[in-house]
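Now for a sample.
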Amino acid sequence: MPCRLLVIGLDAAEPGLIERWAADGTLPAVRAVLAGGTSGPLRGVEGFHVGSTWPSLSTGLDPAGHGFHRIDQLAPGTYDFVRPLDSPDGIGGVPFWRAASDAGRRVAVLDVPLTRPEPGLNGLQIVEWGGHDSVFGFRTSPPALRDEVLAGVGAYPLPSDCDAHRETARDFDRFVSGLELAAARKTALTLDVLAREDWDLVVQVFSESHCAGHQCWHLHDPAHPSHDRQLRDALGDPLERVYRAIDAGVGAIVAQAAATHVLLFSSHGMGGFHGVDFLFPEILYRLGATARPAPSPLQVRAARQVRTRLARTPLRRAVHRARGHLPRRGQSHPRSLDHWADTAASRCFPVPNGVPVSAVRLNLAGREPHGVLKDGPEAERFCDKLTHDLAEIVDEATGAPLVAAVHRTDSLYSGPRRDSLPDLLVEWNGTVLGTLAHADGRGSTVRASSAKIGLVEGHNATLRTGDHHPDGLYALTGPGIPHASGEPGRLVDIHPTICRLLDVPAPRVDGEVIPAVAGL
């Protein structure tokens, strides 16, 4: 049945690959959309492009407007971590499908990441049938739809967490084949929803590109330190396989939807794993900005176990066996900052934000429970000094600065939920790292030094070989849309653009309507 507006998201699909493979015919369906109207680059969320991407797209608000930068983040005024999506207040802003529903439009919203089920939606919603991040688990509105989905296309063919230790061609082929099957089932699910009625808005997001990029970038990119040519020869290019499967789905969905307008976008990009967030706490300790926490008996016992494993087994296997015994930066839902800092003696502390860009929360008197740093000139001097000290650190492998930039969050964003965000954002240089998980740890060691920190050395032990950058792309087709290269857009522009295409009043947002549809 015809659809007024079809929106297809390609989660963390690298725009350079999309454009290259569209141009050479590898992705014919995406090529048709790109060539059928206006397309252009889509700038993501600076500093918070890992966690804030989908909330910013859905609400049209910058991070200080919706207040979300990570699934688990500090509750303002505490040293404790909470899950904002689980709280009664949720996050700030109104998702574009809620605005459309409230205006009487019939909507079908399928698998948009990091979104909670919307009660009383004028239509249907599927949450986390298959996605990269799982917060709520598989839910639907109306609830009876859940059983219909399972009876029609079955369960998602892969676990909700795509991180896993894989070594052999069989391991990776099973994973990539699962992603190909997942894209096919997601397509079948979307086609079923399209056939149910005439919709004003249908949204589907393919997250398979996200998982493939994190887990298989080293097999795609011959220049990656962990690249394994034999595995690549046995598998083919895993990313190309997954993107082809998604493209087949795009073609089938666009054909059946017969939509008046089609909006296709990549939310943010993907490249080689970079960033040394795993060194960041130690750097802050040595700079005297953060006080080391007193180890708990459990941590002391775990450290002994790690040392024993390292002494008895080869390095790579020992590290992976030991990973579960110690609290880790970025682990799911840490309980409090006590893992990383003595909060009563620290002027700042590191908080999880993502690997390419680390984050700092100032321990401000009057804001934090044990705040020691006075807001105003004292905090300004501290930030200036910390920025200077970080800029002096050198990556010994390249001789280049380890830190590309330090951003003040207040200089990037302002809004009612600014206090939910970190205060400083530390952007690491773009040197791609190997990992202890592959290629015998080739390229996984980082040695950094400065006069103030001495020499800090560590190993990247993550299972991921790809990570994000904030750049995506968009393409619009339909009546009134010019056939041309479009102006660059921002991620937060997607929300008001969809509202314009549906003739729906947009709530207050930070984005603007993409120029190609401004006159419609």
User: Anything to note?
Assistant: Residues 3-272+467-518 form a domain with the Alkaline Phosphatase, subunit A fold (CATH 3.40.720.10).
